[in-house]
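Lay summary. Proteins are chains of building blocks that fold into shapes, and those shapes determine what they do. In this project we predict the shape from the chain. Here is one chain we studied, written as its sequence of building blocks.
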Amino acid sequence: MNRVDDGKVGVSPGAARRRGILLSYGLVDEVVAAIPVIGAPLLRAHFGLTYGQLGLLFAVAALSGFVFEPALSLWSHRHGQRGWIIGALVVLALCFAALGLADTYGELVVLFACYYPAGGIAVGLGQVVVVDEAANAATAAGAVGIMTRWTLLSGIGDIAGPLAIAALAAGHQGWRALAWLGAALWAALLAATAGVRFAPAQPAARGDPAAGWRTLVREALATPALWRWVILAWIPTMIDELLLAFAALYLHDQLHASEAEVGLLLTGMLVAGMAALTLLDRVPTLKAMAHQRPRPLLAWMAVGVLLGMAGFLLAATPLAAGGALAAVGLCGAGWYPIAKGRAFAEAPGRAVVVRAITSLGGPLEALLAAGVGFVAQRWGLGVGLACIATAPLWLLAALAGHWPTERPVPAGADGP
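And here is the predicted shape, written in a compact code that computers can read:
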């Protein structure tokens, strides 16, 4: 479903196996990412956390990812990605095992600060390898198609994660069981990756390590359209894990839904998102708009998300709130793959550079998590979620104004 080359002749079995394993990274990552997010009520109850402490925990994790991930991603480009991916998977498995044994908030902070950058490196470099190996990734249509299908496969993990948490919660399992589940999934992915051979590092990348940063700055300054798309790829963070975490708390604490009901309601939002991605990938009109006229499409999506968030905040029952969240998922799922795909298209063959630039959004994610946690602690969860609901307004603002000339889309180009 998330193929890169449509099974073109000449792809060796080893390359096909490597590609299949790497494409599964997004799926596993989303399943495990649901553990601290959808499982936030269990995490808060186990450690007795306040909303502020919970927000700070995610903020520290995001800031750690910002500090370490871009530099390590560029460094991996010089020495080959395989060793870095394997090492990051080892750290992830150990971190989640340790989370299952942790007893204090301080231990939580340290472990979150370790596993966030490790996850970014493992999953991000897996994505870089897939994009760089795709023969048609240099076109806007190809890059958007790759990111749509990567996101669609990740959507399976989005759905499986809440369902697994709901099942464990229904079986009266707590935070420790969730953490050990995460450790087992990362360990399984590590075992699968250990037997895969990667292409060697590109000779042109083996130079002065500082050159990677100089190239990064030159790419950013010389390609204004790249920056615009990167900024647009940052904004969906607000309606992704951040929204899921605080929506889970809102459903549980304000609308009195059980942990199992929370998991099922948020699964509905994720199923709607998968449906939207399927339509974006398969309906010719939507596909053409995503490839050639993405800004009007994104603007209409933003309006839909704004209306969905308003409905969620006004809902009086968990079922009504779940319906509003489904609307948010339906309208917001395409934000990230369209923006990220167009960003890759602005720098063909330099996926690692685009990945490093997008990683610079870490401070924004950290500030958002800490800010929403503070607002929720001070003025209530509803006000905190209202801050998240401004995401479509930020998207519309980023789409407005004069745009520099974009990289042209070849006539008749199509996604993978």
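What the prediction tells us: The first helix runs from residue 13 to 37.
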